[in-house]
Amino acid sequence: MLPEMKIGRGATVRLLVLGWTTSAVLVALGGGAAPAFGAETVRGETVMDRARPEYDPLAMRLGAFDLFPLMEIGGRWDDNIYRADDERADDGTPSDWITFARPRVQALSQWSNHSLALDAGARIDRFQDNNDENNADRFATLTGRLDAGRNTEFRASANMADLREGRGGAYSIVGGEPDTFEKRGAAVGLSRSLNRVLLSFEGRYDDYKYDNPARAFRDRSDREWRARAGYRIPSGHEVFARATRYDRRYDTRRRGLDRDSDGWELAVGVDLDLGGLLFGELFAGYRRQSYEGIGLRSVERPSFGVELDWNVSPMTTLSATASRAVEETILDASAVLVTRVEIGAVHELRRNMLLTATLDIANNNFRVVAGRPRHQEDIWGGEAGVRWLANRCVHVDFSYRYETRDSTIPANDYGNHVASLAFTLQPPLRCR
Predict the structure, then answer these.
(1) Is the Cα dihedral 390, 392, 398, 401 positive or negative?
(2) Comparing C-alpha atoms, which of 264, 183, 165 is closest to residue 220?
(3) Cα separation of 138 and 119, whole Å?
(4) Which residues fall within 8 angstroms of residue 17, CB to CB, at 6 or more apart?
(5) Dihedrals φ, ψ of 30, to 5°?
(6) How far apart are CA 307 and CA 135, in angstroms?
(7) Nearest in space to 389 (alpha carbons), one of 33, 73, 17, 28
(8) Helix (H, G, I), strand (E, B) or coil at 391
(9) Which range has the worst mean pLDDT, 53-67, 97-111, 248-262, 281-295?
(10) Are strands 152-164 and 135-147 parallel, antiparallel or unpaired?
(11) What is the DSSP string of 7-36?
């Protein structure tokens, strides 16, 4: 059990001062590490993903598997835990201090052919003043790969999770109690390369069961099938075409409304690799989702996706992601078209010290039921942080995030500050 921490209303300022003071001291001292200048850039590897043998955790060997257990513990100050509008809240927006623990273990096979991996853990939050917000998520994923020859591989995975929805999402109602649910899923895939031609197929199934009987109308199953054909051109890039089929089925109807839907997406794109310095994937296509219920309008829009990393220098990586997805909602709408864009930067100030920053925006465009007023919202966010790799066994992270939502429904607007300090602990095999 984590120790109880007492903190007053001025904790936000104190935590920020503590975090940035700690960061300044770490920057000044640098943990005794040599500067990053002169580090070599590995093709297709970002600064964040770069191997650091002197700071990366050592595996625990169990037969043919390498185990990587860890525990992340820390605290964060959240000045608006309900993601509510301060101007319309009767007693203002409640803030709280949250202690958290993130136990996790990964197991990776070390076979010469085939592979098997397990990733399991939990996310535990304990609120100092608002105990009804306490939660404990659990998850586990088992993934396997069968090498059926030089150019063919089969993949399969199974996953389970017990989760609690976060506040402020497109699926939530402002001021409402977040739903908890069970998610169970499985996926299979096949890929084969024929000289420069790359072919793949994947099927996925996810089942959602909500714990509150009053929310049983949200129980559903999602199925997805995806086929892709690519061609690797001599420059090293891959151009591809992709077709995806979506099928969503609900167990029950709410107020007689049938939310079952079918959809598809067609897309073309390219996998880029410009000398290993600029790499990623871009695609553009068209997405449609049609709903069974009378009054539920279809979603039909162009789709796109971007995942790019640019190693500006051996010490700095810039990244950009963008996506558009059709997601479910419990509001008076058939679905919500979610468009997200994020720009990030990672800078290796010293070999064991990383500075991070991100800016992001999400637009939630609700496909409202016929006769309802138009509804959409923009969520803007920004975050800055510092990671200090003390040694193999101790990593320290401090971050500050600000987020705001601007909605066509004024009562749904909010602003939110979160400051967090976390310690990631590895088993003390050889810490130095």
Answers:
(1) positive
(2) 183
(3) 11
(4) none
(5) 70, 15
(6) 32
(7) 33
(8) coil
(9) 248-262
(10) antiparallel
(11) --TTHHHHHHHHHHHHHHHHHHHGGGPPBS
Q: How far apart are CA 342 and CA 358, in angstroms?
A: 7
Q: Look up tokens 């999402």; give the residue.
A: 169
Closest CA to 383 of 348, 341, 355: 355
C-alpha dist (Å) from residue 23 to 11, 33, 364, 430, 431: 18, 15, 35, 25, 21
Helix (H, G, I), strand (E, B) or coil at 236: coil
Residue type, 3: P
| Length of the chain, in residues | 432
- List the structure tokens of 259: 């939310």
* Cβ atoms of 143 and 116 closer than 8 Å: yes
DSSP-derived letter for residue 257 is B
Structure tokens at 359: 């800016």
Q: In the prediction, which pLDDT does 30 show? A: 42
Q: Which two tokens stand for residue 213?
A: 């009987």
Whole-angstrom distance, CA of residue 154 vs CA of residue 198: 14
| pLDDT for residue 32 is more than 70 | no
Residue whose pair of structure tokens reads 């640098």 in the numeric block: 30
pLDDT of 339 above 90: yes
For residue 278 the two structure tokens come to 């600029």
Placement of tokens 């996506």 in the chain: 323
Cα 254 from chain centroid (whole Å): 30
Strand partners, 252: none
Pairing verdict, β 353-368 and 414-425: unpaired
Q: What's at 62, amino acid-wise? A: L
Supply the pLDDT for residue 21.
42
The amino acid present at 178, given as its one-letter code, is: P
User: Is residue 79 within 8 Å of 416, Cβ to Cβ?
Assistant: yes
Residue 19 has pLDDT above 70, yes or no: no
Q: How many CB atoms lie within 10 A of CB 32?
A: 9
CA distance 402 to 415: 7
CB-based contact 303:285 (threshold 8 Å): yes
User: Residue 130 carries which side chain, given as an amino acid letter?
Assistant: N
Alpha-carbon distance 67 to 25, whole Å? 33
pLDDT in tens, 177-232: 788 999 999 999 999 999 999 999 999 999 999 999 988 889 999 999 999 999 99
Q: CA angle at residue 74 from 163 to 48, to 5 degrees?
A: 85
